[in-house]
Automatic annotation (TrEMBL):
<dbReference type="Pfam" id="PF01370">
    <property type="entry name" value="Epimerase"/>
</dbReference>
<protein>
    <submittedName>
        <fullName>Nucleoside-diphosphate-sugar epimerase</fullName>
    </submittedName>
</protein>
<comment type="pathway">
    <text>Bacterial outer membrane biogenesis; LPS O-antigen biosynthesis.</text>
</comment>
<feature type="domain" description="NAD-dependent epimerase/dehydratase">
    <location>
        <begin position="6"/>
        <end position="213"/>
    </location>
</feature>
<dbReference type="InterPro" id="IPR036291">
    <property type="entry name" value="NAD(P)-bd_dom_sf"/>
</dbReference>
<comment type="similarity">
    <text>Belongs to the NAD(P)-dependent epimerase/dehydratase family.</text>
</comment>
<dbReference type="InterPro" id="IPR001509">
    <property type="entry name" value="Epimerase_deHydtase"/>
</dbReference>
Length: 277
């Protein structure tokens, strides 16, 4: 099988290649211009020659993890999101003339918005509230139309707040960890904020076990709620007395359809995150 993977060096996808079947012929596309085993690819430029030179008859699976992801979604500019996340994807689809069997998109749970309802699922209404979430929403719609028109299977994973190794120091949960390590006093605001956490290892495991058979849209977050205050308590190895309820962006659908999937302990992942960083 031929697999195209755009964005394999991204933070979210860092463990996924290890889980994919090594017998497959995987073509890695990256914006980083380095002499490694991948093809240099710039989302903001036209790339017809790159694909023509491969001389392939078909693409079985196209993974699309390439996106501009701002550090702070609320203050990023529309120009940056539009240029890469929308026009970049549109140009890619226009330039690839090789028949594609299935496209797998890494989207974001931010398309639901902050939400006034108590419970969300894959069929809930979408309320993108900033330029980044709007660009991810438009990516989904663009690919849905493209796949329908060209008889291509479409699979979309809406991913929650990702944490794990190689996390940027400026990200919220990493900042909490670093300040705690330095012995600095930390005031946790919005303790009731639901982080909708998912670890990079869990992303790779869930996707690798489902991408061949799954179609449609799935939320990828931990199956249980993790509030910001609870995250801090777990990180500092303090006991939590209250039981947690189901989180807003539930992964229930993916576990229900693929019963063989194991449920991974988020608490253990947070403790490991502490030890690894």
């Amino acid at each position: 099988m031929n697999i195209f993977f755009f964005g394999h060096t991204s933070f979210t996808a860092q463990n996924l290649l290890k889980e994919l079947n090594l017998k497959n012929k995987i073509f890695l596309f990256s914006r980083k211009n380095e002499k490694k085993k991948f093809i240099h690819f710039d989302l903001n430029k036209r790339n017809k020659k790159i694909f023509n030179n491969l001389n392939l008859k078909k693409i079985d699976y196209l993974f699309y993890f390439s996106s501009f992801v701002p550090l702070n979604e609320k203050i990023t500019s529309w120009e940056k999101c539009k240029k890469t996340n929308i026009f970049g994807l549109a140009h890619l689809l226009e330039d690839i003339k090789i028949p594609i069997k299935k496209i797998i998109l890494a989207s974001s749970c931010s398309v639901y918005g902050s939400g006034k309802k108590k419970l969300f699922n894959e069929n809930s209404e979408l309320y993108p509230e900033n330029f980044y979430s709007l660009s991810k929403f438009m990516q989904e719609k663009l690919l849905q139309v493209y796949c329908h028109k060209n008889n291509i299977d479409f699979l979309c994973y809406r991913i929650g707040y990702v944490f794990g190794r190689k996390m940027q120091n400026k990200r919220l949960v990493k900042k909490i960890l670093l300040n705690y390590r330095k012995g600095k006093k930390i005031k946790i605001y919005n303790k009731g904020l639901n982080l909708n956490l998912i670890h990079t290892e869990d992303i790779s495991y869930l996707i690798s076990k489902t991408y061949k058979k799954a179609k449609g849209i799935y939320n990828l977050t931990n199956i249980k709620q993790t509030l910001l205050g609870e995250f801090y308590k777990i990180l500092t190895k303090k006991k939590i007395k209250k039981k947690r309820k189901m989180n807003n962006f539930s992964s229930k659908k993916i576990f229900k359809q693929f019963k063989n999937l194991k449920k991974i302990s988020l608490k253990q992942k947070i403790i490991n995150f502490n030890n690894e960083n």
